[in-house]
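Quick one, probably user error.
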């Protein structure tokens, strides 16, 4: 049986539906999962083991047999912990069949097959009774059903069903309870991710669509590594507040709920953003606590337990509201069965309805949060405006090829004769038309819902384009080089371009650096043994999936969230000249990069630099050269690509060791095939 999967196509700028084998989805699920990260999360694993031991002791002290229900068992780790702690029997439920099969093998390999039964079902389908999946109800409930938002993986409905149908009244639960915390803040940086903000170009202010400024925004949570947002980047307006607590040892409700905290404002400012995280107590007394708090809340920030499967949340309030220090205000948390959201009011305002925020302006459906941040970045805007000033003339006919871009507005303000812009969907066309209307530019810039291949001379008023511009940015791009769709567009538009056309950016460079990651390496590293249990079967499964099809390629990561060091100097390894058409033959680049700093090389970071003019460039990767120690600052607006090595390579930092690379750009597909191997240094070549 075949399956159809969406895959970005850099040659067309579209999401192609490609027929793959029936194993494709399974391998992608495993290769890109957080299983390895969870197994490497020592703090989580130790706390669960302590909580399970304590729960088994409490049941045994009452003279009862310890019967455990483990929902979402994954590898079977928590079930093995339970049996090792003295549980008499364990029912381990796992709905994902490949994982259930692996759990069977791991349980058998560790000698627990007689005391652990793997049930390949959703927990709501599990039956109890002589002929059921479980012989009797359990008196210990162990689960790991949580995501960064706590309840986003359906924890509440699963607990609700389990208490009604699968466990005894008064059962022990591990974890015993969870608490969601929130802090109200003002943050220029974070607020720039929420909506388009006014900016000045050529002495004129460009403003957002008024509908957007009053829109509640995207309904999905923004999950990030909040430890990488330093306290200097926000102004607290409240203390850290406990907002929502759920006791998993008692019946749980998934019904919508509103919870409110009243408090005097900690400072004056604009209430814009809620920072949120949760912790869980593994025992009733709260002596075994596992916290997702960001590092800057802890006494020893350098030694906080890093994890990527549970991060922290940023919630953007529907509108920003002024707050005065000491003013009594209210923060309201609402939840349904799968999500949380926040509202803010002064103490005299009425309570808001329990309804999820929804985007009504459509801008939040076109622009992602990093994209909002990119459009609002004044330094980045200044570089584009500076470059446009050098090429736009009073007789310029400009065509923009980038999704949801403000460059056409900049070109018009700078005096271009005519400006056209291509949008890839009706929704993005409508969003851009609303921005133009808000700035009294309706009719001065033509927004065309068209792909470059479909554009005709009549679409451009029978005039040829003298200036082709792009950031470039495309919503379908996943990896940095997917934005080479701009190059393919330029090639498709060749018949609409003047012979002396000016193209911005004029070229792009693929750049790379050899990296040591402080923690990110864990998501791809084999575990072997976890809390004394052999989980090597899981390692083999992950490696098999990583070796399958496109899983062998680089993968996108926002490296600003992951501390890392460059063990080599950045290197341009391939150049793409947009002034020429896409070649028919492959482009190849080979060479070696010297490891000039001491450390463990976990992989390669790759990104694109765009050369707008001869002397103005913008980078989607490093915002400045690495420090002497190799510390890096990355653009927060785009994801970089990371090619992980199968095992780390040690660098002595004496420039004696190097990594050899071989890169091939395939024009027919827009893909870049890459290979990195350790070896003697040699000079870079390209063809």
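Nope, works fine. Designed sequence:
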């Amino acid at each position: 049986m075949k399956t159809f999967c969406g895959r970005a196509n850099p040659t067309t700028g579209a999401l192609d539906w490609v027929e793959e084998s029936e194993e494709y989805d399974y391998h992608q699920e495993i290769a890109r999962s957080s299983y390895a990260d969870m197994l490497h999360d020592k703090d989580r694993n130790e706390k669960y083991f302590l909580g399970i031991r304590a729960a088994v002791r409490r049941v045994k002290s009452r003279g009862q047999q310890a019967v455990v229900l483990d929902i979402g068992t994954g590898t079977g780790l928590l079930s093995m912990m339970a049996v090792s702690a003295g549980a008499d029997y364990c029912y381990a439920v796992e709905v994902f069949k490949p994982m259930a099969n692996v759990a069977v093998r791991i349980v058998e390999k560790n000698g627990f097959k007689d005391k652990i039964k793997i049930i390949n079902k959703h927990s709501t389908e599990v039956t109890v009774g002589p002929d059921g999946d479980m012989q009797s109800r359990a008196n210990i409930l162990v689960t790991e059903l949580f995501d960064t938002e706590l309840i986003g993986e359906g924890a509440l409905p699963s607990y609700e069903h389990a208490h009604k149908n699968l466990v005894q009244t008064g059962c022990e639960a591990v974890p015993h309870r969870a608490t969601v915390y929130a802090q109200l803040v003002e943050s220029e940086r974070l607020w720039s991710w929420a909506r388009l903000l006014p900016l000045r170009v050529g002495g004129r202010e460009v403003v957002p669509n008024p509908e957007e400024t009053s829109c509640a925004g995207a309904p999905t949570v923004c999950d990030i590594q909040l430890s990488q947002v330093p306290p200097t980047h926000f102004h607290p307006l409240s203390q850290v507040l406990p907002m929502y607590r759920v006791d998993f040892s008692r019946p749980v409700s998934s019904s919508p709920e509103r919870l409110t905290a009243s408090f005097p404002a900690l400072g004056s400012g604009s209430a814009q953003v809620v920072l949120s995280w949760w912790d869980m107590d593994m025992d009733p007394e709260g002596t075994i606590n596992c916290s997702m708090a960001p590092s800057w809340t802890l006494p020893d920030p350098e030694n906080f337990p890093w994890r990527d499967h549970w991060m922290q949340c940023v919630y953007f309030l529907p509108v920003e509201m002024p707050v005065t220090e000491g003013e009594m205000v209210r923060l309201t948390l609402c939840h349904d069965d799968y999500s949380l959201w926040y509202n803010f009011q002064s103490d005299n305002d009425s309570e808001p309805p329990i309804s999820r925020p929804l985007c009504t302006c459509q801008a939040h459906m076109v622009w992602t949060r990093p994209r909002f941040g990119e459009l609002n970045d004044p330094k980045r805007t200044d570089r584009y405006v500076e470059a446009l000033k050098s090429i736009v003339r009073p007789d310029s006919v400009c065509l923009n090829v980038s999704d949801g871009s403000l460059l056409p507005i900049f070109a018009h303000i700078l005096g271009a004769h005519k400006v056209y812009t291509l949008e890839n969907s009706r929704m993005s066309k409508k969003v851009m038309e609303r921005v133009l209307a808000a700035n009294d530019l309706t009719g001065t810039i033509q927004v065309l819902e068209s792909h470059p291949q479909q554009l005709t001379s009549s679409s451009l008023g029978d005039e040829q384009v003298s200036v082709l511009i792009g950031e470039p940015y495309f919503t379908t791009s996943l990896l940095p080089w997917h934005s080479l769709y701009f190059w393919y567009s330029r090639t498709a538009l060749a018949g609409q371009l003047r012979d002396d056309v000016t193209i911005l950016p004029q070229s792009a460079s693929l750049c790379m650096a050899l990296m040591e990651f402080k923690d990110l390496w864990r998501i791809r590293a084999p575990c072997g043994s976890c809390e004394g249990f052999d989980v090597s079967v899981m390692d083999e499964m992950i490696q098999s999936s990583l070796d399958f099809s496109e899983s062998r390629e680089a993968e996108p990561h926002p490296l600003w969230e992951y501390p890392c060091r460059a063990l080599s100097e950045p290197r341009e390894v391939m150049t793409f000249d947009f002034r020429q058409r896409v070649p028919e033959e492959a482009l190849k680049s080979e060479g070696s990069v010297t490891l000039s700093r001491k450390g463990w090389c976990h992989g390669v970071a790759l990104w694109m630099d765009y050369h707008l003019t001869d002397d103005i460039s913008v980078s989607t990767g490093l915002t400045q050269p690495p420090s002497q120690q190799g510390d890096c600052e990355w653009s927060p607006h785009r994801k970089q690509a990371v090619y992980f090595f199968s095992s780390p390579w040690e660098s002595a930092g004496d420039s004696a060791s190097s990594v050899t690379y071989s890169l091939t750009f395939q024009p027919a597909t827009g893909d870049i095939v890459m290979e990195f191997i350790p070896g003697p240094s040699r000079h870079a070549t390209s063809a």
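The chain has a mean pLDDT of 92.
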